[in-house]
Amino acid sequence: MQREEIKTRIASLLREMGAGAFEREEAIGLSLLSAFSGESIFLLGLPGVGKSMIARRLKMAFKDSTCFEYLMSRFSTPDEIFGPVSIGKLKDEDKYERVVDGYLPTADVVFLDEIWKAGPAIQNSLLTAINEKIFHNGDKDLELPIKGIIAASNELPAEGEGLEALWDRFLIRYVVRPIKKDEAFVELISGKSSQCCVPDTIRFTKEEYEQIQQLKETVTLTNDVIALIISLRTKYILEKARQDAEENTDEETKDIPIPYISDRRWKKIVGILKTSALLNGRITVNLSDCLLLEHLIWDNDQQIEGVVNDVYTAVSKSVVQAMTRVTSINSSGIVQGEQVLYTPDDGNHYVIETGSGQMIITTADYDKLTGATSYGRFVNGHEIALCEGSGDFLIKKNSPGKVTINNFTYPLKVMTKVKTPITEESKIKNPGDILVEFQASVETNIFLRPLKEYKLLYDNLKKIKPSGSKQFRR
Predict the structure, then answer these.
(1) How far is it, in rounded angstroms, from Cα 375 to Cα 331?
(2) pTM across the whole model
(3) Hey, how many other C-beta atoms are within 10 angstroms of the C-beta on 311?
């Protein structure tokens, strides 16, 4: 399949699947994205907001597919999810084997409502089913045909009940809210909603689905995307370290845990970004795909607002950095020559690049660092000072121009002594072009909302006045 063909069919599919599903287009799109990513999605919302409808429409994306739905309760048994034990096999062959036809192990799309009410026996089997697409049935390991698993609840998993591993398996987390617009609500209650009917011509076969799984591995990341991911990762690592170290942290703020994103989860997140790029007909992940991170890195509903702001701020900062880079190259020339450590105007500090921002350390303290660990603490918010005895963290000199704080290594900012002017031929696009291209990439990304609905990002971009002929469309 050609990439443009994939995008055309996905766009048609989403249009048909979203027919009459008022204000549920984004949730349907994310469910489809999770299925093509080989991952699972969790829908958080009150009863009656259409969570089960989303699952039923996901089934329509695949040709000859089957769907398994189940409403969990604390009395649910594995038999009801994975199939009853075969009495014949147990009696005649002394084998403990389930009859799985018509149950979760044979379904293409699975919807599990009120999932946190499931008992430990169900949860343990679900972990393997979700993560490895395997179900242990007697002495056999069944490869599951599952393309999409949607779980739903009106609450998040309770702490201290051993649900963390299962919760971590749901990579996309989306809040389904009641209908906002009056006109959409009126259409809903007046019965004017149109029926969803997806033609076979745009549904995906098993072979096409598998081909997409192979194609997404060829998608690459731009340097801007890599830098953005590293900046967010570093931000949460440092914030967690500071929250743990600062005894005087405001209690109200301290009650909100910092998101924890494991290396495994980051790898899977990148897989979703790659799938988004592919289904949008591209060979590289761009900054528009990174807006999906707002649904990928929170693990507590108290974090949602902060994560949204972090993601929008990081994306807008990356756009500005790309524009600044273009301006620098066009006006100053390509930077070349000997690199030296950078100091601010006071000349007494070195700057440590963390990705999400900068920290500073005095040149005297940096010179004291060796390959052995020393204790450090934060002063004035972002300045590192060495201290005797215990401190907030461990710090050492990793190599010339780098420091290691706890287990993470950061470079010191460098500057160059020599600049070589660029030729006319090597000049590239205007900064304004970068802004307009980003706006277009958001508006044409089939999994995103219009740019104006990303309010903080939109407001940040409106403040930019780029040079060049093209301007941001307000």
Answers:
(1) 43
(2) 0.78
(3) 24
